[in-house]
Design goal:
150 residues, mainly alpha, 71% helix, 0% strand, elongated
């Protein structure tokens, strides 16, 4: 196999991973858009964290292969689904939500550009913020359930 053919095969694999990560991200966002305020909130936050992590890894590989992100004009003004927006009664610590909001804004800025590395970093930050929130909300829900049972 030639170097060129191997490179083409590698790029095709990376693009498949990018598409799969994008599909997982879209599903995680859709789950938040259609969600009632319920006990599955923690699971949705965790799924969002995992989807963002997959996006991070996929775009790190894309960057390493020399691929670029296709800019999304106007994305800096995008808002997350309603249950993830400020002022909607979000459960969890305010400082973790502030971090989450910052990472959403950073991702929105990153996706207006073409740097796959910046997009990967922004997804990584969002993954960490959503994961920390999922853990905190799970702890709060567990404590509330213990108080109710007592």
């Amino acid at each position: 196999m030639s170097f060129r053919a191997d490179l083409d095969r590698q790029r095709a694999q990376i693009m498949r991973a990018v598409r799969q990560a994008g599909n997982a991200w879209a599903e995680a966002m859709k789950a938040h858009k259609l969600a009632p305020p319920d006990a599955r909130f923690t699971a949705r936050l965790q799924a969002l964290s995992e989807a963002a992590e997959r996006e991070q890894v996929a775009w790190e590989h894309a960057h390493a292969a020399g691929l670029m992100w296709r800019p999304i004009p106007g994305a800096e003004n995008a808002e997350p689904p309603y249950e993830l927006r400020p002022g909607t009664g979000r459960r969890g610590p305010a400082e973790l939500w502030a971090r989450f909001d910052e990472t959403v804004a950073a991702l929105n800025r990153a996706i207006t550009g073409s740097s796959a590395a910046e997009v990967a970093d922004a997804f990584g930050e969002l993954s960490g913020a959503a994961g920390a929130l999922a853990d905190a909300v799970a702890r709060e829900d567990g404590a509330a359930a213990s108080r109710t049972a007592a």
